[in-house]
Design brief:
InterPro entries: LRR_dom_sf. This protein is α/β, with parallel strands linked by helices and 633 residues long. Among the domains are: 1-101, no CATH class; 497-506 and 519-633, no CATH class. Helix content is 22%, strand content 25%. The chain is flat.
């Protein structure tokens, strides 16, 4: 560390990584002396500084904060107080810090001062909690290994933090508070005073006093997990009539169902129901303003006939979207499947346009043709002794008159040639999501006259012939394609489908040349997912930006192992955009870079946002003082 002074001889150095793996700084402070000397010289152009394996004290942080050119900073701190110095970094864009001191009276003030700088993307980690802010969204949670003892350390301090937000910070619109065990609403009650919040997600152990959330004047979406009565909350929300979507992980009792039904502004409800046979409360729900209902079913053997009968007997129901959902807390439990008596009630809900369900047998599924306005169908499963029950379902639907089905999602249900032959006859079908288990002959899907969206979750082999079939149709309407890629030939064939506007490439195996995508001159959105096996030079993707001049959104998502290093040539991309785009005629390209296991290599160059907006998403840093933070650039 004593040799750091020689870095002053590198006037163009813009990125610096210091790894103090052997604790050479333990008994002396050469880092502070080095920073002081560099500040005095004033000749450096550092824009990115990463300091691993050492916690900075107050003196070191104060000196570091004098380097005004810093745009990216990641480090450990001994104490919360040191955060105050970062407000001096006027050019800071990305900050990732781990504070080793436990939460205390200084925390809320210092965190607030930091978050007041709205242009900074911030991750603040500690043993007590982790806070991440990106734009107007804030998420607060705790690492699993620290959760059990958390409440006794932070229950008195979190409200100080939220009160500071409510008093001084007016930019938060979405707040997610989750994954902290044993936290009660009383511990975070000051959240109800942050009036800018539009979406709030809380995972709590106890909900007493939750009705205070109705005081939020702009709250549109509320997602809750916890134990306690919601009657008072629903009563107050009904008085305000602002909330549009409510989600609860538990079950509503009849009294709560009656009260939630009286919220005139509520359009979407997702929850379970403790009594599916209480016709009175369910009738109130059926006559409410609810248009989308997601029913969380904990017991797949419990009948929902009375539940559906309440809606089928209502002439005033507004229900358009019905989703029978497996309890997410028990993903290995069997899903609820609709039987004949339940399906008999569902087909009488004439307002229904969208249905997601599993079906007890083929006979139930074949009753789908009796839903007069069905436009969107999601099939979880069809229990049947036949090898391919979906073939019979599609045969029935294709003869439905009038034909109304526009969107079909088959989730994990695989289809092959026989099913595809019937799907090809659906003239109204615009969107298909499926798994393909039999490749030869499936190019018949290109005959779906009005198909605009094709999402392939998985396939057993190359789909080149399918894409070639779409490319050969001069009247193809296919605009959106999501698919796994296994070879360069697939990319070549996709590049010939000139109607494509949105491409999402993902999968298990990767080709090494994506440059052919530049032939899609009408492309508006591109997402490329690297699952860790990709072997492509990112520079080779740059021609896509030169020739696809209508691009509005691009996402690069990397799922590489921790040792891998991925570099996106942002400045080269920007140079291309400046040469080919006219900002007076089109909006800037929005580029999102997401890394699942690492923190991205942030760009530090000056960029005119009239041409390019770059945002970064990344996983958490490691939190131990003796563990490498994971920054290698």
């Amino acid at each position: 560390m004593s040799q750091l002074g020689y870095l002053s001889k590198l006037p163009n150095l813009s990125r610096l990584v210091i790894n103090n793996k052997h604790n050479y700084l333990k008994d002396s402070n050469p880092l502070a002396e080095f920073l002081q000397s560099m500040v005095q010289k004033g000749s450096f152009a550092w824009k990115s500084i990463i300091i691993n394996y050492i916690s900075l004290d107050r003196l070191e942080v104060s000196e570091l904060a004098k380097i005004e050119s810093i745009r990216v900073l990641a480090c450990h701190l001994f104490e919360w107080y040191s955060i105050k110095f970062f407000s001096q970094l006027r050019n800071l864009q990305h900050l990732i810090i781990y504070v080793h001191e436990t939460i205390n009276s200084h925390t809320s003030e210092q965190v607030l001062n930091l978050l007041s700088e709205s242009q900074v993307q911030v991750t603040i980690a500690s043993k007590d909690f982790t806070l991440r802010r990106n734009g107007k969204k804030v998420k607060i949670y705790t690492e699993q290994k620290f959760r059990k003892s958390t409440r006794y350390q932070i229950n008195e301090k979190l409200n100080l933090l939220f009160q500071a937000f409510a008093t001084n910070l007016s930019t938060i619109e979405e707040l997610i508070f989750c994954e902290i065990d044993n936290i009660e609403f009383s511990d975070i009650s000051k959240v109800s005073e942050i009036q800018t919040i539009k979406k709030l997600s809380c995972k709590l152990s106890e909900l007493s006093g939750i009705e205070k959330l109705a005081e939020l004047n702009n709250l549109q979406v509320l997602e809750l997990t916890g134990n306690g009565s919601l009657t008072a909350l629903f009563t107050k929300l009904a008085e305000r009539n602002i909330i549009q979507r409510f989600q609860y992980s538990g079950e509503l009792v009849p009294e709560e169902v009656i009260q939630v039904s009286r919220i005139k502004s509520l359009e979407t409800l997702k929850c379970g129901f403790s009594d599916n046979d209480d016709f009175q409360s369910l009738s109130e729900l059926a006559n409410s303003s609810i248009e989308e209902l997601i029913v969380i079913v904990k017991n797949p053997n419990q009948s929902l006939q009375t539940f559906f009968a309440a809606f089928s007997s209502s002439s005033a129901t507004r229900l358009q979207h019905l989703d029978i959902f497996r309890d997410p807390r028990n993903p290995l439990d069997p899903s609820k499947t609709i039987n004949i008596s339940e399906m008999t009630e569902i087909i009488e809900i004439n307002s229904l346009k969208s249905l997601r369900a599993g079906f007890h047998n083929l006979e139930c599924a074949q009753m789908l043709d009796r839903l007069p306005n069905l436009q969107h169908l999601v099939i979880d499963q069809v229990n049947n002794n036949e090898v391919n029950p979906l073939e019979s379902v599609f045969r029935v639907l294709v003869h439905k008159s009038p034909s109304t089905l526009q969107k079909l999602d088959l989730l994990n249900n695989s289809i092959g040639l026989n099913e595809c032959k019937y799907l090809a006859q659906h003239e109204t079908l615009e969107s298909l999501k499926c798994v393909l288990y039999e490749i030869p002959g499936i190019e018949v899907l290109a005959n779906i006259k009005n198909l605009k969206e094709l999402i392939i979750y998985a396939a057993v082999d190359s789909l080149s012939e399918l894409y070639r079939a779409f490319a050969l149709r001069s009247d193809s309407n296919l605009q959106e394609l999501q698919t796994p890629i296994t070879c360069n030939d697939e990319i070549h064939e996709i590049s010939q489908i000139k109607s494509l506007k949105k491409v999402n490439i993902t999968g298990n195996q990767w080709c090494n040349n994506l440059s052919d995508l530049g032939k899609l001159t009408d492309l508006e959105s591109l997402r490329i997912v690297d699952d860790g096996q990709i072997d492509v030079n990112t520079d080779s993707l740059l021609p896509i930006f030169e020739y696809c001049q209508k691009l509005n959104y691009v996402t690069w998502e990397f799922c590489c192992v921790e040792e891998d290093e991925v570099y996106i040539p942002v400045i080269k991309l920007y140079s291309i955009l400046k040469a080919v785009r006219n900002p007076s005629l089109q909006k800037p390209l929005k580029l999102t870079i997401f890394e699942k296991y690492n923190v991205p290599k942030f760009h530090v160059e000056d960029i005119d946002e009239a041409y390019l907006n770059v945002s970064y998403k990344y996983s958490l840093v490691k939190h131990s003082q003796d563990v490498y933070l994971g920054f290698d650039y």
